[in-house]
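Listing S7. Sequence submitted for prediction.
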Amino acid sequence: MPEIDSGRSNERRMLAESVADFARRATDMARVRKWRGVAPGFDRGLWQEMAALGWTGLLIPERFGGMGLGLAEMAEVSRGLARVLMPEPLVACAVLAARALVHCDNEAFGAELLPRIAAGECVAALAWQEQAGDLGNRTPATEAVLRGGQVVLNGTKRFVAGAAGADGFVVSARGGSGTVLVWVPATTQGSSVRLEAMADGRFSGRLELADAKLPEKHVLAPAEIAQSALDRAVNEATVMVSAELLGIMSRALEMTLDYLRTRVQFGRSIGSFQALQHRAVDLYMQEQLASVALADAVSAIDEQPDDPLTVAAVSRAKARCSDAASLITRQAIQMHGAIGFTEDSDVGLYVKRTLTLSAWLGNSAYHRRRFAGMASADAE
């Protein structure tokens, strides 16, 4: 991300180098293939190593055992791990769920849960969607009823990222005066998770709640706070998914350029053919445009999280990164030729991860509509 790299501190540069070193040591494409279609889809031991490096608590305030850093730092981690298709649910747990908990501003539960998330002892997931395309702020169909000092939950949550290995869920539900957020441990009686395979071999989950009873203190945030906490967490996670897409596209482009330099046809490397050079330059331009859009979104959400224009910057980054990653990874298949279409080719794994991430938290069409709506509102 040139716009971030040019002005970042030595500490941020060291963080990026640490991520790259960890990625080289900890994983390879054989490991990525090993975890495809196998629950929970990631290694808890490696998750503990990531926690020891501070990454699972990077966005958690220091008073709760985290590092208290910003999205610029998390973007470095997300991008670096995505380059090697790390299957661990960093964004789902350490951003989406953890930031929802932080924004709930519930000191008691924050002190109980956030240190465990930062230490890698608890994998949390946010359960907020109920149907395909459910990305707005509509009131959930899932019900939360207070009864005799307990909160009773009934409903179904879908597309729960990180559900396969989750120790608990931050669940959005309809309370008496609007949306509330409730902490539901995975062992809660009346709750069950059904895993659903995704294109890249990882899993999302369907969380079923049937008279799931919890102490009333498990209500993390009342209606006046919950929706804002949810919206902010989703926006922050959307930026980090964009960072993952940037990491994927940059690595896929590198792999393609390496192939063009080494593949020989008609007595010369195919990278010397002008048509392929032009195509490669076009892809590089798309990567750079995506990088700038991401840098703008990171800066906006770190510096002015409540500014309506920040939401527009987030949508611009997600739309740009989704489209660029889709273009670059698919062109990578084409430019690799026949070998690119085989299951043994690593470049295909990047296409499949892109398919999943470009749709998660809103595809490019959704975010272009949201951007247009925000831009129109600002013009008025």
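Caption to Listing S7: primary sequence and predicted structure tokens for the chain studied. The two ends are 33 Å apart (CA to CA). The beta strands are 124-127, 143-147, 150-161, 168-175, 178-185, 191-197, 203-215, 219-221, 264-265, 268-269.
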